[in-house]
Amino acid sequence: MRLRQALLGAAALAVAAGAPAAPVLADLYVPLLTYRTGAYAGSGIPIADGMHDYLAMLNERDGGIGGVRIAIEECETGYDAQKGVECYESTKGKGALVYNPYSTGITLQLIPKASVDKIPVLSMAYGLSAAAEGETFPWIFNPPDTYWDGASAIIRYIADQEGGLDALKGKKIGYIYLDAGYGREPIPLLEQLAQNYGYELVQYPVPGNQMQNQSSQWLNVRRDRPDYMVMWGWGAMNPTAVKEAAKIRFPMEKFIGVWWAGGDDDARPAGEGAKGYKTLNFHGVGADYGAIQDILEHVVKKGQSKVASPDKVGENLYNRGVMNSVFIAEAIRTAQELTGKKEVDAVDVRRGFENLNITEARLKEIGLEGFMKPLEITCEDHSGHNPVYVQQWNGQRWEPASEWFEPMTDVVRPLLEQAARDYVQANQPWPERAEPCG
Amino acid sequence: MLYRETGQFRTSYAADQAIFPLRQDRIGLAAIALVAALAVPLLADDFFINTIMIPFLIFALASIGLNLLTGYAGLLSLGTGAFMGVGAYACYKLTTFFPEVNVLLLILLSGFFSAGIGFVFGLPSLRIKGFYLAVATLAAQFFLDWCFNRIGWLYNYNASGAIEVPTREAFGIVLTGPTATPLARYMAVLALVVLMTWLASNLVRGRIGRSWMMVRDMDIAAELMGIRLLRTKLLAFAVSSFYCGVAGAMMVFLWLGAAEASSFGINVSFQVLFMVIIGGLGSLLGSFMGAAFIWILPIVIRAVPATLGLDIGAATVEHVSFMLVGGLIIFILIAEPHGFARLWQVAKQKMRTWPFPY
């Protein structure tokens, strides 16, 4: 009989639970597609923390954006495209204002849906490079840089090291990448630049299920002896690659990763061997910014953050998450200013993104002076192609190793336009842009 | 009481051989059909259709595919994910070449490509048995995975290596692509799954299915009785891959809308294998039950804290879900090693004799 009672109790509980908690409609609902589990959690956790904590700080400090609280909901994707779509489907009905898929695979699935469901997608410096073409992709935003900007910036940096673009002729540049949409995205550009400047591109794909075992790839690197190594890695692939590079004594200052290969925990496990490893970046690291101090004070100290310890705040990928949330918050704020209403919807937020203009003055206002370069998004250009800099691991933390410099926008832009045309061609019938500019 | 066959007389061989000889079973099936075809479209919201019903039906079809091979013909395969991928990529190429053709037809046609590949990888099955065959099909999984990644032609040299589903119609209704309504996609999936389940149930009850079961139970005996082993086994591989291929094509075209090679990895193979084992080897009904358990339960678990109003982190819920589902799988396999299908049979028997069990 005890079993039956227990079952009855459980049934009663289930019935009671059937009435769902009523969502507060007046909130600004921002779902965060994050991953704190799986093989990519190492990169996903700091970003999820950063994204969450900045928005939570706005709630605590300012009572939200424009006086309206932000309802933050995390949905765990595990970097898996199917689960990501599930998260999207389960949250879009609650009035989601914007999506940050944090996976190129999920982004690709959401791109066609965005214009149908009328919810903007912010793929901050990842996803489809061609989405920077605002005329073709009015609902997708990939500020401050596309992968192609990143690839061109790395080539420009290598050229600077060697003494000019002409010096690239005859050089051998190795490209080690996660063999998925993410890692393949820059290849067309790297190949184009190889044609233009006469360097040789050697590719080392790392399959996603074998990213913790890269010895064969690095054996090939040792055999091929490339002058430079460029990396597009993510999750567990990054620390493995840095360790393997250190093991074969590859000169670390000639090993350059994209901004996603620059987590503190990507370089740290290799110990002394990782010293000198470089990655691109487009924002500052460290906690010496007003906004980040506010996060420490209003969120972390009150125990509302999931960070393992307060010294994780200010790490590279944490700040990346903060930057992502700054974009969201600023877009919502812009939308509020444009429409004059406080409770904006996803269509307004799209307008907000398209009119986003984060100036030096505004950066100072929000307590992020010097954190990033000013960003302006226009109807035509959804990326900004902002300047980047190279940072270097000193064994303890990341340090800037170069001035801010521009990617090769003149090379990238025509290729982006071509890629956008190709995408439209392959995905006929692609909807014409119906949204007015401004 | 309710479930009793007393008074139901069969007066012809046809009636005796019917799939559902009992009136109660027929009523139950009609009720399920009504719910699936009327209640779900009328009452369910997009989330339920998109996230629960469509994937459930697609995985059920893939499980039927694997069940034909593993449950009926006794050949263990770990290549299900790859065979699904073959169907998906074939359908993608077909629709690139023939954009005007009815997309449902293309989805069915892509099954034949998958069947062809399954046929080839089934060739070793005459010589290799049991676990060794599983390892051989594992090779198929890795090889095909590699093809999806490395052969640019398969994904039209897309820079990201993904296949993205274009907008396609059937019978004047947009069925694939972002503008297709969940309802239209659901009805298409439902129609295909019902049709193919009906075909499968006829197949396994006929000569072919019986020869598969003979091979499963003892292949030497079957051979002595005049079953040609190679032909039977290859047919099982081909038919099974056909089902998996159609399921894969549906997965990308009618559910996800875009896919990468990783969507057809070894994880999918295992997922479908678990569905088959949990559901019950050699049972079509079990395939549906297994798919429901493995696909729907984690979604329900994930939804529970939110409905209760508990503030638990998404990652914690994910971990709990992993543990719960894993624990339940072990529990169910201990309680009933033959899966849900067997549980259902036992329950039916109990209902028959209730309230006077003997």
Automatic annotation (TrEMBL), chain A:
InterPro entries: Leu-bd, Peripla_BP_I. It comes from Marinimicrococcus flavescens. Keywords: Signal. Pfam families: Peripla_BP_6. Residues 1-21 form the signal peptide. The keyword Cell cycle does not apply. The keyword Lyase does not apply. Residues 29-395 form the Leucine-binding protein domain. It comes from the Bacteria. Belongs to the leucine-binding protein family. This is ABC transporter substrate-binding protein. CDD domains: PBP1_ABC_ligand_binding-like (cd06334).
TrEMBL record, chain B:
The chain crosses the membrane at residues 27-44, 50-69, 76-95, 101-123, 130-151, 183-204, 234-258, 264-285, 292-310, 322-344. InterPro entries: ABC_transp_permease (IPR001851), LivM-like (IPR043428). The keyword Transmembrane applies. GO terms for cellular component: plasma membrane. GO terms for molecular function: branched-chain amino acid transmembrane transporter activity. It is a multi-pass membrane protein. Keywords: Cell membrane, Membrane, Transmembrane, Transmembrane helix. It comes from the Bacteria. It is found in: Cell membrane. The keyword Membrane applies. Coiled coil: none annotated. This is Branched-chain amino acid ABC transporter permease. The lineage of its organism: Bacteria, Pseudomonadati, Pseudomonadota, Alphaproteobacteria, Geminicoccales.
